[in-house]
């Protein structure tokens, strides 16, 4: 067995696929991380990410899969779910080695796994679309902080751009330390550097005058729509798992 | 805005609106135009109440003043409660500010009837119009149509709202006469009929002229209260079916009666909310709309009530054991959809995947089939299958012994009441 070490990017993954075929490797294991001399693996190879090679693999994949199929693969990889590299590699190899399109062959374990990963990523994306809470700042722009389980920020751009086209907004992933900012024309990726603990205080200090009032109105609304005689906490927590509460105005 | 006053109004008018259970914000296709605010398509639940219901819209009454005296309603004239009324501008400001913070998908505005139907409807329409025309707002708007309002107002409402609804409240005319003497189904059906025709007309125009205005793109819905009057599930579901068929309703909502008032015509105040029954009705409704079941396969004169301890699909299957087992590697999609434990998504996966090779239990499990349930009704590419010739009743016991319903803990308290 050969262990391939790659940089974790999508191009890196595709280059790894290229190397598998170029060196006619059979049983391989994909590993994300730095190349360390003398590390634990018996047989190892470093994948040097290369756009031309990656491009050739992508082209081959596009012949075998539908456009949607390629997008789904990309989304599954983008999510950075730990320990899934080998399933993604398995999926790509299976797609390339088979004559017909295998996207719907759910009997195959790689296809099924990728479909599960896509489902997990989608769910996280939908949750973010639902649970993001913007706060209005004095300069008229809106700010939201999130800590999603997977890296879904890039997948959120389209939704928020088409919904909030007439206001400036920023969504910041605190865990991965980057955000997206929309300035009424374009969106761009940004990083902010503020000190770990002053973060929340800084933002509260920058609120518009009526931000506090609307937050309170929303909390009040949330309380008054509850019907006590129907209480079902199990269902409630299933819909909004506790780890999301921290950024939900109505649950703080 | 005066924070204290508006907070008080919001508390009163949200509280009075919460018994209307419909909260869907889906089914519309309103796009954001001219760099405005918002869009409406798939409907997002932005939060969930502690009883697990979706919070998607700002659901409020314009006012809880009312000239009517419906027995089941907290806002009825003879009830001694605090009354309040929003101004049109207040509703607009709340909607826009909640929407911008991503709290909601839009507005669901209903109202008690003050003065008369037209007077009330005109104000509801004015809110929607202001949002659309002055604020370039393209989020979701659901307006209650007030029975008895003029066709002109209904027409205007359709031009600005995504969805309109008239609540039937009681599944039968008799139930309605008993509890809401001021109302009649006839009066409620009138705006429904008008809207149905207007929606059809606009859809046809839209096909011909791209520029034609959109009209209530998310259609009409209604709500019936269950458990306040003695109608059985057979009557309720047949009446729902009638409205789906004749008025092209998008949804019928079933609202388990929450006892809020002392009245000899109503269940006592300590009666628990029939949540399990409500859930079963939704499941049955779902089977009618998405699984190709005919209403009388689910309930009929011999089977007037839905089972409370098992869902209606399983219940149908064990009454019809002669249809099973089926072979998932061959059966038509519409037959597979009828198997307990197989949902729409897994059924579609099965049909796609079997083209590549025969499926076994392991495959089915990975596709999300609940094999514990389905195994009594299907065969697949595997030597192991349920060989015992079990009766429907035995299957029910096996399944009940291994499943945990999210509602079942309430069943016992509820059963005592029947
Ligand atoms: S008309 Fe509507 S608001 Fe008035 S009492 Fe009847 S149900 Fe309640």
Automatic annotation (TrEMBL), chain A:
Residues 84-250 form the DUF4130 domain. It holds the Pfam family DUF4130. This is DNA metabolism protein. It comes from Mucilaginibacter achroorhodeus.
From TrEMBL, chain B:
Gene3D superfamilies: Aldolase class I, Photosystem II 12 kDa extrinsic protein. Keywords: Iron, Iron-sulfur, Metal-binding, S-adenosyl-L-methionine. Coiled coil: none annotated. Its cofactor is [4Fe-4S] cluster. The keyword tRNA processing does not apply. InterPro entries: Aldolase_TIM, DNA_rSAM_put, Endo/Exo/Phosphatase_dom_1, rSAM, rSAM_sf, RuvA_2-like. GO terms for molecular function: catalytic activity; iron-sulfur cluster binding; metal ion binding. CDD domains: Radical_SAM. Pfam families: Radical_SAM. Residues 61-199 form the Radical SAM core domain. NCBIfam families: rSAM_link_UDG. PANTHER family: ENDONUCLEASE/EXONUCLEASE/PHOSPHATASE FAMILY DOMAIN-CONTAINING PROTEIN 1, TYPE II SECRETION SYSTEM PROTEIN K. This is Putative DNA modification/repair radical SAM protein. It comes from Mucilaginibacter achroorhodeus. The lineage of its organism: Bacteria, Pseudomonadati, Bacteroidota, Sphingobacteriia, Sphingobacteriales.
């Amino acid at each position: 067995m050969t262990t391939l070490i790659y940089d974790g990017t999508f191009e890196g993954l595709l280059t790894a696929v290229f190397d598998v075929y170029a060196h006619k490797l059979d049983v391989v294991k994909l590993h994300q991380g730095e190349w360390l001399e003398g590390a634990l693996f018996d047989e190892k190879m470093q994948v040097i990410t290369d756009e031309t090679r990656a491009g050739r693999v992508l082209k081959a994949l596009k012949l075998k899969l539908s456009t949607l199929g390629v997008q789904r693969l990309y989304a599954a990889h983008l999510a950075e779910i730990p320990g899934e590299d080998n399933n993604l590699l398995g999926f790509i190899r299976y797609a390339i080695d088979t004559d017909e399109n295998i996207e719907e062959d759910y009997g195959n374990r790689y296809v099924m796994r990728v479909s599960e990963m896509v489902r997990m990523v989608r769910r996280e994306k939908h949750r973010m679309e639902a649970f993001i809470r913007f706060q209005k700042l004095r300069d008229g722009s809106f700010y939201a902080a999130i800590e999603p389980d997977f890296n879904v920020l890039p997948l959120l751009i389209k939704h928020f751009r088409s919904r909030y086209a007439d206001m400036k907004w920023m969504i910041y992933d605190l865990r991965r330390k980057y955000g997206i900012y929309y300035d009424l024309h374009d969106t761009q990726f940004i990083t902010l550097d503020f000190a770990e603990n002053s973060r929340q205080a800084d933002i509260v200090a920058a609120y518009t005058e009526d931000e506090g009032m609307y937050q309170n109105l929303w909390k009040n609304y949330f309380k008054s729509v509850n019907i006590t005689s129907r209480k079902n906490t199990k269902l409630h927590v299933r819909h909004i798992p506790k780890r999301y509460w921290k950024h939900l105005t109505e649950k703080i | 805005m005066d924070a204290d006053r508006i907070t008080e109004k919001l508390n009163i008018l949200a509280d009075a609106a919460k018994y209307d259970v419909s909260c869907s914000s889906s089914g519309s296709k309103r796009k954001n135009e001219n760099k405005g605010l918002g869009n409406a398509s798939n409907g997002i639940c932005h939060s969930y109440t502690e009883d697990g219901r979706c919070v998607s819209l700002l659901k409020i009454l314009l006012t809880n003043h009312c000239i009517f005296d419906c027995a089941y309603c907290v806002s009825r004239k003879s009830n001694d409660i605090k009354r309040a009324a929003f101004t049109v501008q207040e509703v607009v400001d709340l909607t826009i500010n909640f929407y911008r913070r991503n709290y909601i998908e839009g507005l669901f505005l209903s109202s008690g009837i003050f003065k008369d139907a037209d007077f009330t409807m005109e104000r509801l329409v004015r809110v929607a119009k202001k949002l659309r025309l002055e604020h370039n707002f393209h989020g979701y708007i659901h307006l209650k149509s007030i029975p008895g309002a003029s066709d002109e107002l209904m027409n205007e409402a359709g031009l600005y709202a995504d969805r309109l609804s008239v609540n039937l409240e009681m599944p039968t005319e008799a139930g309605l006469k008993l509890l809401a003497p001021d109302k009649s189904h006839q009066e409620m059906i009138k705006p429904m009929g008008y809207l149905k025709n207007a929606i059809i007309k606009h859809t046809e125009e839209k096909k011909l002229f791209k520029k034609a205005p959109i009209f209530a793109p998310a259609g009409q819905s209604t709500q019936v209260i269950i458990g306040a009057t003695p109608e059985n599930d057979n009557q309720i579901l047949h009446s729902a079916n009638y409205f789906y068929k004749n008025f092209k309703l998008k949804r019928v909502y079933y609202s388990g009666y929450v006892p809020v008032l002392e009245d000899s015509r109503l269940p006592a105040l300590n009666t628990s909310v029939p949540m399990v029954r409500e859930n079963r009705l939704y499941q049955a409704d779902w089977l009618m709309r998405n699984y190709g079941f005919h209403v009388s396969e689910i309930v009929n004169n011999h089977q007037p009530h839905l089972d409370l301890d098992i869902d209606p699909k399983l219940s149908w299957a064990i009454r019809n054991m002669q249809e099973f087992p089926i072979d998932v590697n061959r059966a038509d999609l519409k037959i597979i959809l009828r198997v307990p434990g197989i949902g729409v998504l897994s059924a579609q996966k099965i049909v796609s995947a079997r083209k590549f090779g025969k499926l076994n239990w392991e495959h089915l499990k990975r596709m999300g089939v609940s094999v514990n349930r389905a195994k009594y009704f299907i065969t697949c590419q595997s030597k192991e299958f349920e060989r015992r010739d079990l009766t429907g009743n035995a299957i029910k016991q096996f399944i009940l012994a291994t499943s945990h319903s999210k509602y079942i803990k309430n069943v016992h308290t509820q059963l005592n009441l029947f």
